Amino acid sequence: MLESKIRPSQFAWLVPPALALMGCVGGGAPDDPYDIGRKPEVVASAGAGSLDGPIPAAGSKQSHFPLVDGTSWTYHHTTVVDDPWDETDTVTKGTYQGQDVFVLSDEEDAQGEQTRSTHVIDGTRVYRAYKEVAVGDVVAVTTTYDPAFVRYDEAWTTTGDTVTLDDDWTQNCVVASTASKCAPGAVKIGTTTHTYTVLDTAAELTVLAGTFTTVKIQRENVSDPETKIFWFAAGVGKVREESPATGAVTELSAYEIP
After folding, report:
1. Mind listing the pLDDT tens digit for each residue in 7-16?
2. Rounded to two decimals, what is the model's pTM?
3. Whole-Å CA distances, 83 to 77, 208, 248
4. How far apart are CA 60 and CA 38, in angstroms?
5. In this structure, is the dihedral angle defined by the CA atoms of residues 163, 127, 18 and 176, taken in order, positive or negative?
6. Which residues of 226-258 are buried (b: 16+ CB within 10 A; e: fewer)?
7. What percent of the chain has pLDDT above 90?
8. pLDDT at 100 over 70
9. Cα–Cα nearest to 73, from 238, 204, 215, 212
10. Whose CA is closest to 52, among 230, 202, 231, 198?
């Protein structure tokens, strides 16, 4: 089992100017000056319960978190209190200073809210580095992450591996809305610590979209106690997400990766 604590100084390359991020992503990407291409940081070691063969490139079509322009996933949501609903997420490719970024957008909900998250690839990891929530296509609140928020690491290849990471975030309120719940111009700063644990590298799982062999990950929010469990399939992406405390479940019902 490997444990590590990533400190902000190790991510000095991720320092976007806050004002440059105040805007709508649209079909491209916000001004996030990420220097992508650092040496991969492998966190898994060979052993029992390990995935065999070379790991796929982070964000590639063969990866567990594909960031391919035009990709879409449709998820079926269930909770113990609300009626079930379906949602489609899409990926749009953009560039900044010659580097690739990928904007993951969900659909507007009943209140007209939509989340658009800018993802970057660094080594074996996919990170969320910027997020904005829009209401009726008007950006209401933005969040920048420095260090960025890890979404998946292709080096999670051995059952039992664990890693603890910090993401520092700055939230900027642009306009008052149901999404922002803050006064325009308000700034909130904080740090969230997550512990990621590989529960199973070959978990068989059947959902509406089919049966998949997945990597099962537990993500524990240490700062604001919350546990989530994720199942990711190579060449597919997230297949299932579960919040044990609330009973909320998200399952893949359809997907298309060009």
Report:
1. 333 333 333 3
2. 0.80
3. 9, 17, 11
4. 17
5. negative
6. eebbbbbbbebbbbbbbeeeeebbbbbbebeee
7. 67
8. yes
9. 238
10. 202
